[in-house]
Amino acid sequence: MSENCPVKVGETVPDFELETFEPGTLTFGRVSLDEMMKKGKWTVLVFYPADYSFVCPTELADLAALQEEIAAAGAEIISVSTDTKFVHLAWQREERLLKDVKYRMASDPSGRVCRIFGVYDSKSGLALRGTFIVSPEGILSASEVNYYNAGRNAAELLRKIRANVYLAEHSEEACPANWQPGGKTLSPGTTLVGRVGDSLKGQ
User: Fold this and answer.
1) pTM of the predicted structure, to 2 decimals
2) Domain ranges within the chain, ordered by starting residue
3) Within 10 Å of residue 24's Cβ, how many Cβ atoms?
């Protein structure tokens, strides 16, 4: 796996380990994909360019507002930047927008894990805004990469997590655009060809 050949959706993610700052307990720790898989958790990796920046705290605060719902869906958020765990601690302590962050803040100063997912910018040494959903089996199920100046939407991330969790249990179905739990799904087959609108009528 290299910067020029990152893991793709549908492929197995290689194991990795990162040092973390744990805002919930104000301690330092470590997290690995293997650990998450053993816990049966969906892993949500949220890469961002840098601590003490501008768009980043708004994104992490947006995630914090939904961290309980994401956890209830069976997933765990891990934010990742190339800053050290000590910088994470200081930033979370000083930036008012991050006061409710309880998820792990991981440190990837070498950019190794950033490269696995193809978000490492070698010119700046920073990570692009990449969001990745990894199944409990270690398969990359969804990815999104934005440039530095475009923030993401945690509500849409939660929707995608819920859809992937549902589809893992109902692999014969498919979720249409804007699907939410309890909404109609699609059952691909010959009878549905050209009649998708009819199947979703009344939704």
Assistant:
1) 0.94
2) 17-169, 173-203
3) 10
Active site residue 175: no
> Are 140 and 10 contacting, i.e. CB atoms less than 8 angstroms apart?
yes
Q: Quote the pLDDT of residue 64.
A: 98
Query: Which of 5, 56, 114, 175 is flagged as catalytic?
Result: 56
Q: What are residue 163's phi and psi, to 5 degrees? A: -65, -45
Q: Does residue 59 contact residue 153 with C-beta atoms inside 8 Å?
A: no
pLDDT digits (tens, 9 = 90+) for 133-189: 999 999 999 999 999 999 999 999 999 999 999 999 999 999 999 999 999 999 998
Residue-wise pLDDT for 75-98, tens only, equals: 999 999 999 999 999 999 999 999
Angle between the N-to-C axes of helices 154-169 and 55-65, in degrees from 0 to 180, rounded to the nearest 10: 50
Instruction: Enter the DSSP assignment of 82.
Output: S
Residue 168 CA to residue 191 CA, distance in Å, equals 23
One CATH from 3.40.1010.20, 3.40.30.10, 3.20.20.70, 3.10.690.10 for 17-169: 3.40.30.10
Contact 89, 67 (CB under 8 A): no
